[in-house]
Amino acid sequence: MRTTLVNMLMVLMALVTGAEKVGGQQQSAPPPSKFKMITSAYSDGDWIPVQYTCGVTDGSSPGLQWSDAPQDTMSFSLIFHDTDTAPSKGVTDFTHWVLWNISASAAQLPANVQPDASPDGIQQGKNGRGANGYQPPCPSVGARPHHYVFELYALDAKLNLPAGSSRADLMKAMDGHVIGKASFVGIFGQGIDSKTWRWPVANPQ
Predict the structure, then answer these.
(1) What is the CATH number of domain 33-188?
(2) Which pTM was predicted?
(3) Distances in Å between the alpha carbon of 89 and those of 86, 93, 97, 98, 168?
């Protein structure tokens, strides 16, 4: 009887020790990524200035800056899209800009990148209107403002993808090569007071 009791206690202690180890492993989350992206044009989650939208006839792309990319980065790609054009529908939302083969040594993208241009070997793809370049945010006048998200991907390879490819082509080419991601969000609406109207922004990552 005593031997049985001792054996039961040993089994119980083993189970408790194992549970503590599992719990410790679950609590040991990986450190947060330091890979960040910003623009001097506006703050993350803030209203996009009109010069980068269709509110002017020549709305241009803002300059972007990033830091602390993964050590093994070989190139960057960028997707700019409107997350509110297809909410909860299970389809692709509107694509405003796609670029790839941004140099691994780069830490910024200049403002006002022209359509079909390829500065420093960067390739541009088709936006939602079929043009190779930046499509300014342009929600309907008076409609609820939309979220516009820049997503910068750090890749462990340079992509063999021709200019004019689609967002779907880019996503397929990036598959298995993404080693880091940084996001930046802006909000824009036409005919709405940006100083008094506020909409909480969820982290897109």
Answers:
(1) 3.90.280.10
(2) 0.80
(3) 6, 9, 21, 22, 17
